[in-house]
Amino acid sequence: MARSLGTFLKGFQKLTFLPVVRTHLSQTLTCISPRSPVRTMVALPLPFFTKPRDFSLPNSSWGPEMLRLYEHYNSLTEVETLGGEKQEGPWQRLPSYNRSLKYATGGLYLSKFIQSKARLFTRNMRNPGAAFEYVIFFNKEKQRCVCIFQAGHLLEGPPGCVHGGAIATMIDTVTGTHASQLYEAVMTANLNINYRSPIPLGSTVFD
Ligand SMILES: CCCCCCCCCC(=O)SCCNC(=O)CCNC(=O)[C@H](O)C(C)(C)COP(=O)(O)OP(=O)(O)OC[C@H]1O[C@@H](n2cnc3c(N)ncnc32)[C@H](O)[C@@H]1OP(=O)(O)O
């Protein structure tokens, strides 16, 4: 594993253009330009041709607060002109899938088995509401992202509260997604978090 990781990092060292972006959360992200010579790109054929599930849409586990915030931002994704026509609004809901539809290995060798089984960490629970329920909205003009997150019962850390690693995961996901929207594909280089108050399991947080 260490050798594979070394190969992976060596692959990145060969990239020619890696500007670093610092966010207010003290997270450092490195942009990986698609023009850079990433060596291995594998487009995986999907095993079946059904539409992949979009996990950013409401499901039966979403509580009233999650739904209320979702409806608020979703209503801003479309505006009506004076002539009554619908137009794109300032906010955009970012769809979210549990697997990469086109799989880029970034120079790392991955077996076909792993490629077919790989799933996004935050979207790999079958039971709706058990872990990470979230939706991210993006405002291009204001360069802002908001995330509405409902913490499921499988994310327990301290009794009754969300695990710090799960919180870090969400922060990493949102800042990474935001940077990817503003720039290009990114890797997190550094993530520092001050935990100021616990998040009760089952509650909805928003930022
Ligand atoms: C579709 C769903 C999308 C969901 C989004 C999910 C987002 C999730 C994001 C992640 O979790 S990524 C996984 C966790 N991160 C990693 O595994 C990254 C591991 N680290 C690396 O691969 C490399 O260290 C990294 C690519 C980040 C940097 O390697 P480089 O070879 O480019 O570093 P280099 O030493 O050349 O430094 C380039 C610049 O970055 C700066 N830098 C590098 N590491 C840094 C660091 N840790 N802190 C601050 N600055 C850093 C460095 O000083 C330098 O600045 P300057 O250009 O100003 O000289």
UniProtKB/TrEMBL annotation:
A Gene Ontology molecular function term of the record: hydrolase activity
Catalytic activity: (5Z,8Z,11Z,14Z)-eicosatetraenoyl-CoA + H2O = (5Z,8Z,11Z,14Z)-eicosatetraenoate + CoA + H(+); (9Z)-octadecenoyl-CoA + H2O = (9Z)-octadecenoate + CoA + H(+); dodecanoyl-CoA + H2O = dodecanoate + CoA + H(+); octanoyl-CoA + H2O = octanoate + CoA + H(+)
Domain of life where this protein originates: Eukaryota
BP-aspect Gene Ontology terms: apoptotic process; fatty acid metabolic process
Gene3D superfamilies: Hotdog Thioesterase
Pfam families: 4HBT
Main location group: membrane
KW Lipid metabolism (keyword) present: yes
Membrane topology: Peripheral membrane protein
Compartment(s): Cell projection, Ruffle membrane; Cytoplasm; Mitochondrion inner membrane; Mitochondrion intermembrane space
GO cellular component annotations of the record: mitochondrial inner membrane; mitochondrial intermembrane space; ruffle membrane
Known EC number: 3.1.2.2
Matching InterPro entries: HotDog_dom_sf, THEM4/THEM5_acyl-CoA_thioest, Thioestr_dom
UniProt KW keywords: Apoptosis, Cell membrane, Cell projection, Cytoplasm, Fatty acid metabolism, Hydrolase, Lipid metabolism, Membrane, Mitochondrion, Mitochondrion inner membrane, Transit peptide
PANTHER family: ACYL-COENZYME A THIOESTERASE THEM4 (PTHR12418)
Family membership noted in the UniProt record: Belongs to the THEM4/THEM5 thioesterase family.
Protein name stated in the entry: Acyl-coenzyme A thioesterase THEM4
Source species of the chain: Channa striata (Snakehead murrel)
